[in-house]
Structures are given as C-alpha cells and as structure tokens.
C-alpha cells in the first residue's frame, strides 16, 4: 500500500514538482552566484556580463568608482531590478530571477541601505523586537508575548552590535554610527543568510569605523556579508577578498594587496586615490 | 516611552502600569465622590451636587471617551482625523433611534409605531432601516456596528490607496460634512434639521429622573475606564509599537514586513467604535441628537481637546476634553460671545508654552522630581 502511494506521489518522480524547500543549498560552496548578468537602462549598460560568486560565510568587499554598477548589482540580487540576461542563484536551489522582493527577503537576504532609518520614538530593544522574523499579522501582533527565547535572541544581537547599555533608551538619541549598528542589528533579527551592506561607514568617526569593522568581521562565518564601500582604509581593514567593479563588470578580484597592485585597477580607479598608492 | 514587555495576556497588561493605576484610581474616586455628594447630602447643602451638575459631568465623561478615541489614531498612529464627530454622531443616532422607538404611542400624534416627525411628514410606515431599533440589544449593537462599518469602508479605501497626512485629514473632514448635509434632509428619515428628541425612557428607566441621570453618569465613567484600558492594552502591545513605527516611518515599517494599511484600518475601526459608544452615552444625557454633531467644526474642536491635553498619552486627552468643556460651560455662561476667543487664545497659549499639552507638563514635573537636574533638561 505504501509502495503504491510512493509511486503515486508525483513530486517524487518529477523533481520540479517537489515543494520548494526554503532551506538554502550551499553544499557546493557558493551562497550567491551571478553569471553573465547584464542590465541596461535606456541603452546604457549599467551591468555588463557580470560574473560574481560569493562563498558561504564569506566577507566580501565590493569597490569601484561611481557608476560602476554597485548599487544596481544590489538591486538585482534583492529583486528590485530585473536583469536583461544572465542568471542569479542563491545557493544551488533558488533562482532569484523567479522570485519577488518579499520572497527573496524571506529567503534570508537582508539589505542595509545607506541612510539609516530607525524608529526614533521606540527604544533600541523595541526596534529589534519589531524587526524580528515573526508572524506579522494583526491578531498575532496584538497578542504577541515576550518569551525567553525572543528575549535571548534580542540580547544576543544587542551584544553583537554593542548597544546593550542603551537598550531601553529611545533610538532617537543614538549617534549616527550607533544608528547604523542598530540597523544592522535589525537585519540580524531576521536571521539572514546573506547580508548586503551599502556604505556602512559613510559619515562615521574613526572609532565608529573601527567598531563597524569589528562588527562586520564578527558576522562573517555565521552569515555571508557583502559590503559596498568607498572608504579604502576601511576596506583594507576588513577585507579578505575584494572585487573591483568597473563599467558594470568585474575588473579584478583578489586580496586587497593583489588588487591595489593590479595595473588595470590603478589606471581606472585607484590611481586617482592617493590614500591607497 | 514606557513599555511593559510583559509576558502577561495583552488585555491585562495595562493594570501593571503606574499611569493606568493612577488614572483608574482618580477616575473611580471622582465617580464615587460625585455619587456620594449627590445622594447622601441633602439639597441645599453647600457640597451637594445637584442633578444638573451630575448630568453635566456625565456629558464631559462621554466627551472624554471621544477624545481618547481620537488620541488613539492621532497620537499613536499619526492619523489626524478631522471627522471623528461623524462616528460619534452615528453612535448617537443609533441610540437616538432606540430612544425614539421607546416613546411608543406617547408622542404628540399618538401613533403606535411611527415617531412624530414621520407622522408629520405623512409617512405611511417605518422605513426598513428603522426596523429592529425597538430592541435594545439590536440598537446597542448598531452603536458599534454603524460607525465601525463606515470606518471600515472609508479606511479600507483610504489606507489601501496610501492616502495619509493632510490629504487624509481633508477627506475625513469632507466625510463628516457630507454626512451632515445628508442628515439635514428630511427624506433621509432621521428627523432632518430637528434630529431626534423628546426621549422618555431608556431600558425602562425614566430619563428625566435624577437617578437615571446618575446611572448614565456612572455608565459614562465606566465606559471611559474600559475604553481607556482597551486603548492602553492596544498601545502597550507589540501592535502599539507597530503603530508608533508607522507614525514615524511608514515606508520602513512596511519594509519590515508589516502590512501597514491593515494595522491602520484595524486601529481606525476600533477608534470609530469607541467614538460611537461615546455618542450613544452622550445622547440620552443631553436629550437630543441632530445633524450639528456632524459639523466639521465640532470634529476640529475634538482635536483641540486632545492637543490641549497632550497627544499620545490617552490620559492627556481625558484631561483636555474635561478642561476645555468645563471652561466652555463657565465661559458661555458668563460671556457667551467671548467663548470662541477664549478657546482660540487657550489653544495658542498651549501650543506656544506647552507643546506637549497639559500631560507634557505633568511628565516634565515628574521627571524633575525623579531624576538629576541635568537629565531633566535634556
């Protein structure tokens, strides 16, 4: 009888009928895989045959001059922009081009925008509580109770972002840097697999930059982190592997020393930047 | 912002708060005091509270409940409704229809079923929407359902189209204005210009007796306490924090995965129902309901009470409503012509000197007491 049922259940026969698992398949190494991706806006090729592979647990920095396609690349990964050609895979199971923004977000891809937006009237703790992955319908939200498990998760993130002492203060009193960390914390509450971080240290003080570097490096391993950043000093302090984008495709890839000695990179980008030379 | 991240059942959460305990204590003490002074002391005694004053206090309490309803949507959700008078009036009309049907054949024309104004208009029979209002349970259900349904339809259309800010304020204003014009028409079947009046009894109690008035006063007080508790429970829940988040950064809240328009709709409907209850308690105490309650000016006045008392505190709305209406009673008695100037002056003064209202003054004084001076100035 059970044998018959097994034969009858067609999703076992045809692989594509199997219910899509939300688990990300990273057995083959990469968590994010972009192949020959191109997108053009009114004839302008913002991304041109871009190939990029991010390994599971990796911390990757992406640099490049303005207009190199960094933000467009983020938009493609999060589903905001659709490429004209190419393929984008999350793990080896999920084709991101077949999913919309909320679906991609719920798969575990979190994105931090440049300008921090936190809820200023709410406390740091409450900001994290609202960001948590949970049932977000009305009744569930109205009757939600604070369990020990949630409390622990929030405490854990508070320690990571270094805001434990300020947990009950309104987020409005935080400094610019602290708001950025809180925002990263809000992303972490959703237990993401891949974090996309857009210019995290813009407008930060030296000390805040150091703290951010520590935070991002401590996150790598648990989750994969992709950082887009202009500040070369900062990139040097965190990056194990750097990708240089230029005119929508990868110009060079490797360690910071490798790319900063690459003549092509020096010519188009770093040459003008005295900080690196 | 105080918040209890308690593990308690959400409806019981407010009881653990100092502010709520204080509010309920003061309210219940005031109710008890007025009752004792009214019942126990003989008429003519210096401290005796007469039936007229009890009735007046009852009216203030129903206004206070209305102000709490407005503060829920304005203070916590950031929706400045300039049309909450409409929900108040609909609740009032539902109650008025019940009271009209209770008159029975004792009207001027002595018709067994039809209210006087319908006989006067030569109507043959009761319109379909007047059916059922002779039963108290049906009428009381309508007190909640009529404003709730209007808020549901109106809110669904407005929030789904992401109408917010000043545009929403303007269309709420238009809503109440349109309803006022409609209710002025005799053909609507709600008594037109004159509205509904000449009520005799409620649930079998004579509306003109002072005991019934005391009962209505106490009922208004209890309704205010329950309404306050319900709003407080909503505000201290996670849903309340989603509301505040929506108020301050709507797009960000949506990005976190909350269906913002549904939260707005939910809170808007709850607020409209509370306003309806306030209207239903108001009508038997003043003895009349007419289309002037739909007037846009009245809705703006409610917002003034809340602003004066202090936004986003709930108890501030209660203080504001009682304070302004008490001042109105005094002023219109002494110098009727000066009242509007006094109200305007009061509003200007509070906005300039106390931007957070009377409640903000309380909070400031309390903080000064509790914390170090340098923190109090921050």
UniProtKB/TrEMBL annotation, chain A:
NCBIfam families in the cross-refs: urea_trans_UrtD
GO molecular function ontology, one term from the record: ATP binding
ABC transporter domain location: 32-272
Protein species of origin: Vreelandella malpeensis
Keywords: ATP-binding, Nucleotide-binding, Transport
InterPro entries for the chain: AAA+_ATPase (IPR003593), ABC_AA/LPS_Transport (IPR051120), ABC_transporter-like_ATP-bd (IPR003439), ABC_transptr_urea_ATP-bd_UrtD (IPR017781), BCA_ABC_TP_C (IPR032823), P-loop_NTPase (IPR027417)
Record protein name field: Urea ABC transporter ATP-binding protein UrtD
SUPFAM superfamilies in the cross-refs: P-loop containing nucleoside triphosphate hydrolases
Automatic annotation (TrEMBL), chain B:
Matches recorded under InterPro entries: ABC_transp_permease, ABC_transptr_urea_perm_UrtC, LivM-like
CDD domains to which the protein is assigned, alphabetical: TM_PBP1_LivM_like
Signal peptide coordinates: none
Keywords noted in UniProt: Cell membrane, Membrane, Transmembrane, Transmembrane helix
TM helices/strands, residue ranges: 21-40, 60-93, 136-159, 166-184, 214-231, 263-282, 302-326, 338-363
Location of this chain's protein in the cell: Cell inner membrane
Main location: membrane
Membrane topology summary: Multi-pass membrane protein
Full protein name: Urea ABC transporter permease subunit UrtC
């Amino acid at each position: 009888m059970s044998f018959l049922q097994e034969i009858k259940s067609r999703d076992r026969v045809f692989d594509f009928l199997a219910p899509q698992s939300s688990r990300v398949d990273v057995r083959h190494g990469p968590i994010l895989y972009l192949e020959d991706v191109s997108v053009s806006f009114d004839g302008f090729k913002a991304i041109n045959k871009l190939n990029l592979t991010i390994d599971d647990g990796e911390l990757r920095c992406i640099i490049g001059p303005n207009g190199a396609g960094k933000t467009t690349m983020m938009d493609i990964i999060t589903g905001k922009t659709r490429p004209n050609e190419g393929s984008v895979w999350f793990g080896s199971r999920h084709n991101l081009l077949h999913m919309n923004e909320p679906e991609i977000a719920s798969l575990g891809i979190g994105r931090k925008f440049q300008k921090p937006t936190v809820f200023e009237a709410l406390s740091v703790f409450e900001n994290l509580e609202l960001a948590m992955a949970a049932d977000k319908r009305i009744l569930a939200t109205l009757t939600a109770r604070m369990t020990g498990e949630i409390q622990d998760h929030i405490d854990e993130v508070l320690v990571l972002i270094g805001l434990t002492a300020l947990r009950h203060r309104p987020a409005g009193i935080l400094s610019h840097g602290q708001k950025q960390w809180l925002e990263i914390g809000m992303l972490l509450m959703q237990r993401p697999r891949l974090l996309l971080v857009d210019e995290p240290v813009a407008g930060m003080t030296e000390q805040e930059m150091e703290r951010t570097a520590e935070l991002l490096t401590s996150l790598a391993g648990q989750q994969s982190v992709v950082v887009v950043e202009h500040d070369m000093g900062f990139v040097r302090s965190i990056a194990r592997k750097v990708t240089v984008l230029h005119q929508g495709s990868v110009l060079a890839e490797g360690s910071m020393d490798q790319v900063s000695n690459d003549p092509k990179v020096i010519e188009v980008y770093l040459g003008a930047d005295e900080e690196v030379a | 912002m105080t918040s209890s991240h308690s593990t308690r059942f959400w409806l019981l959460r407010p009881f653990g708060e100092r502010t709520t305990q204080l509010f309920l204590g003061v309210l219940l003490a005031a109710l008890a005091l007025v009752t004792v002074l009214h019942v126990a002391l003989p008429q003519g005694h210096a401290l005796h509270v007469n039936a007229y004053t009890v009735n007046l206090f009852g009216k203030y309490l129903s206004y206070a409940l209305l102000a709490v309803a407005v503060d829920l949507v304005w203070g916590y959700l950031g929706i400045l409704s300039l049309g909450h008078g409409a929900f108040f009036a609909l609740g009032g009309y539902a109650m008025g229809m019940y009271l009209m049907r209770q008159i029975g054949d004792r009207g001027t024309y002595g018709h067994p079923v039809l209210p006087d104004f319908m006989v006067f208009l030569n109507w043959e029979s009761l319109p379909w929407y007047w059916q059922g209002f002779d039963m108290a349970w049906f009428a009381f259900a309508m007190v909640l359902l009529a404003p709730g349904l209007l808020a549901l339809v109106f809110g669904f259309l407005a929030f789904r189209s992401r109408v917010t800010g000043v545009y929403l304020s303007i269309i709420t204003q238009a809503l109440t204005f349109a309803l006022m014009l409609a209710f002025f028409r005799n053909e609507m079947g709600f008594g037109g210009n004159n509205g509904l009046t000449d009520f005799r009894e409620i649930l079998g109690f004579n509306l003109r007796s002072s005991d019934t008035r005391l009962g209505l006063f106490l009922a208004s007080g209890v309704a205010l306490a329950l309404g306050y508790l319900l709003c407080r429970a909503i505000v201290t829940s996670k849903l309340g924090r989603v509301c505040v988040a929506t108020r301050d950064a709507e797009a960000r809240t949506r990005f976190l995965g909350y269906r913002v328009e549904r939260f707005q709709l939910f809170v808007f409907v709850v607020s409209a129902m509370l306003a309806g209850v306030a209207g239903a308690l108001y009508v038997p105490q003043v003895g009349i309901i007419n289309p002037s309650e739909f007037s846009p000016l009245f809705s703006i006045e409610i917002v003034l009470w809340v602003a004066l008392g202090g936004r986003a505190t709930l108890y501030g709305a209660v203080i504001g409503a009682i304070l302004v209406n008490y001042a109105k009673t005094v002023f219109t008695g002494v110098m009727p012509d000066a009242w509007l100037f006094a109200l305007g002056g009061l509003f200007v003064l509070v906005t300039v000197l106390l931007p957070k209202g009377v409640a903000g003054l309380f909070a400031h004084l309390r903080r000064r007491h509790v914390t170090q001076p340098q923190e109090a100035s921050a």
